[in-house]
Design a protein that fits this description.
Blueprint: H1 2-26, E1 30-39, E2 47-57, E3 60-71, E4 78-79, E5 88-89, E6 94-110, E7 119-135, E8 137-140, E9 150-153, E10 164-167, E11 178-193, E12 199-212, E13 227-240
Antiparallel strand pairs: 1-2, 1-13, 2-3, 3-6, 4-5, 6-7, 7-11, 8-9, 8-10, 11-12, 12-13
């Protein structure tokens, strides 16, 4: 008789226990993620994303984000001479490093079942952009009769292809950057995985528009623009509490 009562109560309260477990898994107050971004205006790695989210109410969060991106012109291509030490980008005069500050909202569309499944969020964010327009350096053979070389800002009107041995160092010229002011807006869907309450992994896919107050010169003999629409995907990892 006692065993029968225990079994009956177990079946009665099992759905409530599972519901409480599911709520416990989703009942996080804040989340911090960082990720690696790939987008249509960047290279193999477009940049890095950092975002802090805080709960407003059940199913809705506010977020504060920072994106650090290397923005490229769609017509850029690598060129390498036979005797060059490395490749360079023909006609490129500037790098654009974009710092995008964002404030947004995250709405949970589908919750994840305990220890399985995917949580899907709809995200929207906007904010100011700070562009660092850094000169593009190349290594040139300053004296054709010797093996001496130097690294200088590339000027297609001065430096011929035969002089160029390759590109400069990574981030060379960033201390000489000019500031460009703009703004950005994005919308996306994020798919969050993970089997524990405190950790989260997943990916985010969507569209972003980055616009500046003046034209950004990246290539000398190309149509340079002030607006950069991109599609992107970000692989992220983070923690919750």
């Amino acid at each position: 008789m006692l065993r029968a009562l225990i079994v009956s109560f177990s079946f009665l309260f099992l759905p409530l226990m599972l519901t409480a477990q599911n709520r416990d898994l989703d009942d996080y107050q804040s989340e911090f993620i960082w990720g690696i971004n790939k987008n249509t205006s960047g290279g193999l790695i477009g940049g890095f994303v950092f975002r802090k989210s805080q709960r407003i109410n059940e199913g809705l969060y506010q977020s504060y984000g920072l994106e650090v991106m290397n923005v490229k012109h769609p017509q850029e291509f690598q060129l390498r001479r036979n005797n060059a030490t490395n490749s360079f980008i023909l006609g490129k005069v500037n790098y654009l490093y974009a710092l995008r500050f964002q404030y947004g909202r995250e709405m949970i569309l589908f919750r994840k079942a305990p220890h399985q499944g995917v949580e899907i969020k709809l995200n929207a964010a906007a904010g100011p952009s700070l562009g660092l327009l850094a000169p593009y350096y190349v290594e040139i053979n300053s004296d054709p009769g010797t093996l001496s070389s130097s690294r200088v800002p590339y000027d297609p009107n001065v430096h011929s292809i035969d002089q160029i041995l390759g590109s400069g160092y990574v981030l060379q010229g960033i201390t000489e950057s000019k500031i460009r002011i703009g703004g950005n807006i994005k919308t996306s869907l994020s798919f969050e995985l993970g089997t524990s309450k405190n950790n989260v992994t997943g990916f985010e896919a969507g569209f972003l528009l980055d616009a500046y107050t003046q034209e950004i010169e990246l290539l000398s003999a190309a149509d340079n623009k002030a607006v950069f629409p991109t599609a992107f995907i970000t692989l992220f990892y983070g923690s919750r509490r």
